[in-house]
Specification:
The protein is of the alpha+beta class. The protein has one domain: Arc Repressor Mutant, subunit A. 35% of the residues lie in helices and 16% in strands. A two-stranded antiparallel sheet has the order 1-4. The chain has a two-stranded antiparallel ribbon with strand order 2-3. Helix 2 packs across helix 3. It is globular. The model has no long low-confidence stretch (mean pLDDT 96). Bound molecules: zinc ion. Zinc ion (ZN) binds next to loops. This is Transcriptional regulator.
């Protein structure tokens, strides 16, 4: 039996996922689920360093004006440039270094 974090690692070693896609793949529903996943990703990025792997982040992007956020493990709610809340989620992937 794999833990949720182990399952996330396995998924991200295959391809990139956004937090929403991870929730779907793990069959997790409900409010606050994305926050749980972000916390998992933060913990995972720390443990990976000891295994010669790295968590790659494709930053969030404003779908209205194209503003690119910093590559961080968080979900921005609003664009600082145009104030749109139409934000493309960041995507995460694990690579072996
Ligand atoms: Zn924008």
């Amino acid at each position: 039996m794999m833990t949720r974090r182990q399952r996330i690692i396995k998924l991200l070693e295959e391809r990139d996922y956004s937090p929403s896609e991870l929730a779907l793949a793990l069959d997790m529903r409900g409010k606050g689920i994305k926050k749980v996943i972000l916390e998992d990703l933060k913990a995972i990025s720390k443990t990976l360093k000891h295994e010669g792997k790295v968590l790659l982040i494709k930053p969030a992007e404003c779908r209205k004006c194209g503003f690119v956020f910093k590559p961080e493990i968080k979900l921005p709610s609003k664009c600082p440039r145009c104030h749109s809340s139409w934000i493309e989620e960041p995507r995460f992937k694990i690579e072996i270094r």
